[in-house]
Request: fold
Amino acid sequence: MDVARLRESFAHVAVHGDELPLFFYSDLFLKHPEVRGMFPVSMAAQRSHLVDALVKIVSQVDSVDDLTVFLEGLGRDHRKFGVVAEHYDAVGASLLATLEHFSGPAWTPEVAADWKAAYALIGSVMTAAASADERLRPPWWRGTVVAHEPRSFDVSVLFVQPEPRMDYLPGQSVAIESSSRPRLWRYYSIANAPRQDGLLEFHIRLIDGGAVSMALTSSTVAGTELRLGPPVGVLTLSQPVSGRDLLLVAGSTGLAPLKAILDQVASLPRPPKVHLFFGARTADGLYDLESLEKMAAQYSWLTITPAVSADPKFAGETGSLPDVVARHGDWSGHDAYLAGPTKMVRDAAARLASAGVPQDQIHIEDFGWSEP
Amino acid sequence: MTTAWFDDKSRMTPAELQTVTFPTSRLGRRGYEEEAVRGFLSAVHAEFVHLMNERTSLWQEVQRLRRRIIAGESDGEPQAVLFGEADAHVHAVRILSTAQVTADQYVADAQDYSSRLTLEAKRRRDEIMQEAQQYSDMLLEDAHTKAREAAVSALNVAAAPQSDEKQQAAQAELAYLRTYSDVYRAHLRAYTEGILRGIEEWERKEAASLQEAAQAAHAAQAVPPGGPRAINGDASAPLRGRG
Reply:
């Protein structure tokens, strides 16, 4: 396989933009109509995922280690979509047909052989990772909603019973598919440490125009069945326990993974001191304050500071969450865990770093390959 | 065969347009507006991509016709080779692609509509809540003031000995005002909760009708390539039908 030739060939076809994945999926669906049902109604997001993945693969094709990690994740991740080994041949054939179509006369036997070899490699890494994963866990879990608690205008808390039992680390997330939005998966963090009865708690915020969050907050009731993907994510308590005290910064439903970590800390023989900052725009957005305050009353090692950014009349802390956290002193000796809206997390991480918290003590979620 | 346009390295590419930089003008105010230049370049880029896609299909068409002629000549019958299997497939790919893009557009429009609707509902909700809050603050303040006055006058009544009749009247007024305050509090709570229920009910209905729309769109799209007309009819009916 000639890497330079492969890249040149890809650069050559990439100028066709969205036409490329459009041709690919139409070719695939015409040759294998049965796979159409594995995709959502709108293919717009799907097409850009495909191009992003191709760009990543082609750019990393000569750094095998990074690429292998990416492809193994991709292979495992595709199990929940119902992808099996036979689908890889179909996809490979349509990929080659697409590249040939857009390459025109540049599609020489050598270029064709490069792509064939590259795809064989991609397919074998993905299928190997998928079949290794098959021995460990199901492709997806059936989740039955046992309770739906609307907590504020746009936040609901769902309690879901997975079948079979799911093993995960506190702080991890799963992709959720609602039967009323077929083939659309969105990641949500589990808000509790594993329990005896296996029940999972999710905090769902209604996103304006968000197809899945709309379905989960408004048309989900006790008894609704969901599909859950495998647990993923690295926002978990460092092992072995560092011995440092913990700073948890949660913006809105970013509380979920941190509440799971809190849950885990409570079960430690000697829990570290934990200071949890819980922020929202208005007091109405502090949707889980009651249960947090109950925990704070129960555990002497836990301090809760609620903060509100858009209501100066709020009785507690006001201002942006990173500001409020920074005002509360020196965090350089703490392990910090941050979750919430991307901008808030980024700002808070930067503030902590500039205030002397070492980079390896600042923990944020990195979805990497599994970003929906 | 002449050099295909694909291989002509001297030609400008869309990528060049995206990465081109201009020297900044030294005299501050002179030179073009950067935003305008960028905007124009992005339009040129889109046009370029469009042209290249168009040229690819033309090139494919030329190849097809060329194959047809060659095949026809070898058969000795120019009309023998008509629409080949490969051509039919590319044709079908194009039709399906068009149908898919149309379906994507309907979903995007519905999502955009739902997003605007939610935003509007939230804005209205905030207004209603604010009004209700102000109304409630005002009435409660009023009730409290009256109740305080009553308490003060009842105290005065107690301090300066007055006829039993007057004292009884003051106590009656105090009791009346306490009740007044309690009743108003209960009334306002019911009023606010009623509004909240109304909003929730409305949101639920909204969600249900959007869900129906999505399902209808899905159903219409499940038979590719069913054609955009059918999708349009099914997807928009529930939206129009919402009262």
Summary: Residues 294 and 304 of chain A are 10 Å apart (CA to CA). Chain A touches chain B at residues 11-12, 15-17, 19, 22-23, 25-27, 29-30, 33, 36-37, 41-44, 101-106, 150, 153-154, 180-182, 206, 208-209, 211, 214-215, 218-219 (CB under 8 Å).
